[in-house]
Amino acid sequence: MSIKKAAAAALVAALGVTSLAACGTDEVRGAAGKTGEPAPKTVTLVSHDSFNASKEVLAAFTKQTGFTVKVLKSGDAGEAVNKEILTKGSPQGDVFFGVDNTLLSRALDNGIFVPYEAKGLDRIPAAYQLDKEHRVTPIDSGDICVNYDKKYFADKKLAPPVTFDDLAKPAYKDLLVVENPERSSPGLGFLLGTAAKYGDEGWQDYWKELKANGVKTVDSWELAYNQEFSGSAGGKQAKGDRPLVVSYASSPPVEVLYGEPQPKVAPTGVSTGTCFRQTEFAGLLDGAKNPEGGKALIDFLISKKFQEDMPLQMFVNPVAKDAALPELFTKHGVVIDKPETMAPEKIAEKRDPWIQQWSSLVLK
User: Fold this and answer.
1) What does DSSP assign to residue 120?
2) In whole angstroms, what is the distance from residue 4 CA to residue 279 CA?
3) What are the b/e assignments for 30-59, b being 16+ CB within 10 Å?
4) pLDDT tens digits, residue range 151-171?
């Protein structure tokens, strides 16, 4: 969430780190546009609150194109998408970044984007290109997975869970905390992962097993990870007592990066058989005041320079084949080879009724 992520930003905040990008509106100033008829000098990127990029990289775009980049942060992913739907045809900016595969159908069905085939799209695997009309361009990916507290399981001499099936076993009773899918992007991703794993009907029986096994539900990733989870820096301070939490595959490298002192080994691990793949997209907004600047920005978002900047800014994976991951990710992260996935069309059809069914099963 949203492949974004709000979770990464909240984790950074919980660890007392100030993001390079300020809240609200950020701007990088550059040269004026081309001579001749006056053209807009600013290209506005509308995003969820967790967008971040180094100032040096955005300055490189400005130097390359002459456009100033203005970032307008618009709430969490769902809220930001809904705002663009409400302002369809008269958008807040030129490009929208941060709609993921769990919300993609909502954005496309409401026609907020116009087609644009980005330069360099051939460097992005077809598996990420979910819209054949090129109304959106894939920018990053990430995996929603259960994380575990390594110390807890070592102390208990208990092997951490690996799969969805494991989470329902008696050995892990009262250990897992999850987020409400109605309110949380990771929570929704985890629900979709269980539906992909067990099928349209079987996921309900699975959640009955989780409930019987003492799963705890909270409203947000922030509460789950930084209050309830015993393995995070925030959770330790809050005396969290749940050693299993729904988070991201990229959470362990973040714990290393912002640890004080920085640990040599990540204190948390990833249950690799519990993952759901998120992909985030950007699109040129219908009615954009600076469509040429918007197209240039989308091209830049999939450039090697921007793609390699993303992991340590937003804690997501690049989608371009020529973009390398930083050592922090390769040393402390984990590659999810076979995450659960689901077609956006099916998510569109099933998302709301599944959330209602989940609420009836788990919260009552």
Assistant:
1) T
2) 8
3) beebeeeeeebbbbbbbbbbbbbbbeebbe
4) 999 999 999 999 999 999 999
292-318 pLDDT, tens digit each: 999 999 999 999 999 999 999 998 999
CA 111 from centre of chain: 22
What per-residue string of b and e applies to 289-327 under the rule 16 or more CB within 10 Å gives b?
Answer: ebbbbbbbbbbbbbbeebbbbbbbbbbbbbbbeebebee
Report which secondary-structure segment, H or E, holds 269.
strand 268-285
Nearest Cα to Cα of residue 121 among 303, 307, 325: 303
- The whole model's pTM is what? 0.80
Q: Measured between alpha carbons, how far is 45 from 282 in angstroms, rounded to an integer? A: 9
Tell me the C-alpha distance between 242 and 176, whole Å: 6
DSSP-derived 3-state class of residue 259? coil
Rounded-to-integer distance, Cα 288 and Cα 96, Å: 10
Please name the amino acid found at residue 246. V
